[in-house]
Amino acid sequence: MSDRPIQLMLVDEDPVFRLGLKVWLEQQGDFTVVSEAGTAADAPAEVRSRSARPHPTLAHPAPRTPAGPPP
Length: 71
Description:
Blueprint: E1 6-11, H1 15-27, E2 31-37, H2 43-52
Parallel strand pairs: 1-2
């Protein structure tokens, strides 16, 4: 099994419930909540918006520009 926590998206219309569940899950150590949505209809748009921006732990360094010919 991986040392990285399982990444979850919480979907529930009650923000207080989502917060409580998020806190509890993250205290377990095996989970991290990376996204939330208020309804199942909102969830796909949230997934699309997350996939459009790089995740900070998965981002790769920018490629280096090759050096020019030696002088």
